């Protein structure tokens, strides 16, 4: 077996810490998973090498001598990273900061990952899961997003078949029957009347959104909010429920959770008529520090909110209807006790294992972190408008090169526009290095030649004193090769 490519080795190095602690990686380090996915998208031209590294990581996760649960956790972490690489910058997801050009350029990478990694990963993950595992709904949700958003052109039924076959092998007759029933019900839905199907889906979405909305309103009542804020949050939820678009209803629970954490006092800062003024740097630093310190808390709270939303989303409709009926009735009839007990027994384990007190505290902490970050961002925007994004660097550079001459050189210096163009290229090179989490020292030969050619054009400025040159001058290094005068030698010695 040949050694892995440099890009595959780098990917394995990045994945190693996450595989060492799979339980924490699956629930907490979502930011690290997104960083690795962004790195893969940045190196999208090396899709074959990235697929090779991911395949090796899957085999390593399987071969680790550990319990089956940790093995499934490791494989789920790898699947989440691949999922983020498949859906990042997707224009139809409705996320902010989407770059459509990068999404289009990443199509070969998505096709390579789907063709070489995803099927193998789904089969191995299904082989490690038990009946009723909490990982199964997460995998089903990711597969549904791939198919709905059409991340690449492929036969999705083949991937789903590999996943279902793996579940049948490990789950026995019970899981096999459940998978067959799910396939049969799906086929029946496809052959049903289109109008009836759309009406049923809308009713299900409205029913589930009502449950999520009632839980969100209950959380809101615990906070000291004004009636205006509660009315604003309620109106936002009603607008979300009124939407009948299938793609929006897929993410309705996530939008409902975010609406309960929104800040109603956005108008505290008046962005209109902000007068220009000098802004001290420490004011920007204070606001940025608040945003950075609360980011980890917000990430953890976001995972908790998504898990809670997923738990409520898997409640059967008949259980929701029964709970709503029991809430309206004041007295219970003895004849219905057995029927109610049978219906309530269908609640999923994920919902029964919830600690409502802890979930309530986590949502409140998540809400407060978002509120404080929002205020800090508004403050940054206010300071940017006040300073007009002018920090004096460009004016200082024009003063230095304004006369066309420099104190260190008798000749005319380059035009300020040419210098700014070079600085722009340097900034692009630095941005690439930061995106790679450091300088990439193992590049291909062609890329190294290209970089060397660009570095020749970007020579240091004449006013920049290199530390190595000063050391050579102080040590009396003879660059030209001519013998130095004896008087100079005496001074040096």
From TrEMBL:
Residue segments, region Disordered: 185-206, 221-263, 464-493
Comp. bias regions, Basic and acidic residues: 192-206, 244-256
Protein name: CID domain-containing protein
UniProt organism field: Cyclotella atomus
